[in-house]
From TrEMBL:
Sequence segments annotated as region (Disordered): 173-197
GO molecular function terms noted in the UniProt entry: sequence-specific DNA binding
PANTHER family hit by this protein: DOG1 DOMAIN-CONTAINING PROTEIN (PTHR46354), PROTEIN DOG1-LIKE 3 (PTHR46354:SF4)
Protein known as: Protein DOG1-like 2
The organism's place on the tree of life at top rank: Eukaryota
Length: 236
């Protein structure tokens, strides 16, 4: 199934893989750019724009991803690493993982700079999270987990539908046609029925993946919005 590019040209599986590789290469440059800018004498003027650029880069991925109609390609992309596959959730990373990462990094930075914090020094990183930030982050985390649960339930329902009565009957028809090897028109009609049913189910799954992608992107944006630009750099 084809993917449409910005100019309306269809992108096949190979071209989509090329897009992902280029996107990943650019993403790998972001940590260096963010850290370099954060260590400049006056980073406050340029950091917000750079953080927005990183968010736009993620937005671009999900924009292209939403136009890929090969749902199997999204759910089990062959170019992803084994580690990425291990943490895969509905075609990507689990949104609630953003909070685990944030709290882990915050704890490490707090431990490393505890002496300075005890003196009342402003660290400007994740060890400086205020009570108000933590409270809003906790609320956002609970909302995100609930939305995750709802999407997971939708996935489970659609997985059950793969083996519903309609699919069982089609499977039986395919078996009968294969055994009989009779009228070619019967064979073609059964094939069309299978293709039509599978297309509907794939489109249904595609909507769920798009919901998961939307939650990933909105969670990322919401977490960044709760942090200062310099804290967002340390969360990267």
């Amino acid at each position: 199934m084809a993917l449409m590019s910005e100019n309306g040209t269809a992108l096949d599986r190979e071209n989509f893989e090329e897009f992902y590789i280029r996107w990943k290469e650019k993403q790998n440059l972001h940590p260096h750019d963010l850290i370099t800018t954060a260590t400049e004498p006056s980073p406050s003027s340029s950091l917000p724009g750079l953080v927005d650029c990183v968010l736009s880069h993620y937005k671009e991925y999900y924009r292209v991803n939403s136009k890929c109609f090969d749902i199997l390609l999204i759910l089990s992309a062959p170019w992803k690493t084994a580690l990425e596959d291990a943490f895969n959730w509905v075609g990507g990373w689990r949104p609630s993982a953003a909070f685990h990462l944030l709290y882990s990094k915050s704890g490490l930075q707090l431990e490393a700079k505890l002496a300075e914090l005890m003196k009342g020094e402003d660290m400007g990183d994740l060890s400086d999270l205020s009570s108000a930030q933590l409270s809003r982050m906790d609320k956002l985390q609970r909302i995100t987990i609930q939305q995750e649960r709802e999407i997971s339930e939708k996935v489970a329902k659609r997985q059950k539908r793969v083996a519903d009565q309609e699919m069982v009957e089609l499977s039986r028809d395919v078996s009968e046609v294969t055994q009989m090897q009779g009228d070619q028109s019967d064979d073609n009609e059964t094939a069309r029925a299978v293709d039509s049913t599978m297309k509907h189910k794939e489109e249904d799954f595609q909507l769920v993946v798009q919901s998961a992608d939307y939650l990933r992107l909105t969670t990322l944006k919401s977490v960044v919005n709760l942090l200062s630009p310099i804290q967002a750099v340390h969360c990267n």
